[in-house]
């Protein structure tokens, strides 16, 4: 994840896409078959608890099926081969890049949660 010091045109990610696609044929890889649903739950909970200023959207396929579980920052890069053990460091990175919501209003809309 790039930081403002990396690039003068840096834009922090506004949305985190999480692939929850499940294919039932063993010969066809998919993120849910590799554990993306509990990862999505943990990331969404962490974002809510930490009040990180980013939206989350569960999505069906990001075109990186053989490398999943797949996350995608928008704007930004893919996070591939995600494991549940990576969630705290992903939350740390998101918090550093996106900051904390200062308002006391409703939480950032979490689609699919
Ligand atoms: S099934 Fe997750 S990227 Fe395609």
Any chance you could write out the topology, listing elements then pairs?
Blueprint lengths: L14 E5 L16 H15 L4 E5 L11 E4 L3 E2 L7 H12 L11 E2 L2
Parallel strand pairs: 1-2, 2-5
Antiparallel strand pairs: 1-3, 3-4
Helix pairs in contact: 1-2
The structure holds FE2/S2 (inorganic) cluster.
FE2/S2 (inorganic) cluster binds next to loops.
The main β sheet shows up as: 5 strands, mixed
Give a list of the ligands.
FE2/S2 (inorganic) cluster
Number of helices: 2
Percent range of helical residues: 10-25%
CATH superfamily: Glutaredoxin
Whole-number tally of structural domains? 1
Spans of at least 5 consecutive residues with low confidence: none
The SSE order reads EHEEEHE
Instruction: Calculate the terminal CA-CA distance, rounded to whole Å.
Output: 24 Å
How would you state the average pLDDT, rounded? 89
Q: Indicate the CATH class.
A: Alpha Beta
Oligomeric status of the shown chains?
Answer: single chain
Total strands: 5
What percent strand? 15-25%
> What structural category characterises the helix and strand content?
alpha/beta
**Biggest sheet, spatial arrangement of strands:** 4-3-1-2-5
What general form does the structure show?
A: globular
Which CATH architecture is right?
3-Layer(aba) Sandwich
CATH topology: Glutaredoxin
Radius of gyration: 14 Å
């Amino acid at each position: 994840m790039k930081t403002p010091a990396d690039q003068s045109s840096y834009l922090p990610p506004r949305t985190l896409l999480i692939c929850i696609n499940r294919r039932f044929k063993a010969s066809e890889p998919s993120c849910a078959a590799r554990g993306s649903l509990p990862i999505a739950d943990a990331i969404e909970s962490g974002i809510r608890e930490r009040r990180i200023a980013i939206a989350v959207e569960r999505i069906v396929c990001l075109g990186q099926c053989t490398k999943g579980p797949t996350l995608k920052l928008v704007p930004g890069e893919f996070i591939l081969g995600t494991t549940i053990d990576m969630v705290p460091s992903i939350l740390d990175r998101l918090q550093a890049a996106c900051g904390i919501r200062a308002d006391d209003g409703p939480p950032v809309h979490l689609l699919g949660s």
